[in-house]
Write a structure and sequence with these properties.
homodimer, mainly alpha, Arc Repressor Mutant, subunit A, two-stranded antiparallel ribbon, about 45% helix
């Protein structure tokens, strides 16, 4: 069973959290997980290439945003809601509320009509 | 007098704002400007190389976080507080409040004791 690195709650750093959420796909993943449930990469990925998804999930995990639990050959991803709430009270709720309002989510993050016009979702 | 690109308020995108603030130096610049006053790059830079500062200010400006006003040979930077407040009510206040509490600021962003231990401030 593979072990994944997760930073301690006290070691979670604001710039890393903001970087993890500074991409439309990763923001969509966080919105999708904001109900507190676990999901596999496949359930989160939609049409995203597996290697791309692995990359995004790693950035979220190493920033302390996401927890990965492996069970047999499967990995289940969930948000570290309680850890982030204790580190930055209200911040994730606030960010994901704005992201949801702006239309970021699991399936539509890369397909919002406004993206083509405004360049939304560029990770710069 | 040089003209700088600034996105319209309606075109400001959450991932770009989060990316702009996902670096300890840029977070420190935003904290330094959170009083609403204008400052030159030199006033904001401390010991940062001029080219590095120009790079950081450009990212903040193109994300819609910062406004640059040129007057003669000088450029004055300020936060787009009202624009960001209308686009994402309360969000910048929340983020900069957390950043201030965590010790990010103009001069100390790169010198916080915890940086060496935790790797804080890596822009990943």
């Amino acid at each position: 069973m593979r072990r994944y690195f997760h930073p301690e709650t006290a070691d979670i750093q604001l710039p890393a959290v903001l970087f993890a959420l500074s991409d439309a796909t990763r923001l969509g993943i966080a919105v999708a997980l904001s109900d507190g449930k676990e999901r596999t990469a496949g359930e989160l990925g939609g049409g995203i290439a597996k290697s791309t998804m692995t990359h995004h999930l790693k950035i979220l995990r190493e920033a302390g945003v996401l927890y990965v639990r492996s069970e047999g050959t499967r990995c289940y991803n969930s948000l570290r809601l309680a850890d982030l709430e204790s580190r930055y009270p209200g911040l994730l709720d606030h960010l994901l509320g704005v992201a949801t309002r702006d239309g970021y989510g699991p399936a539509d993050a890369r397909h919002r009509p406004s993206d083509a016009v405004t360049g939304a979702g560029r990770s710069a």
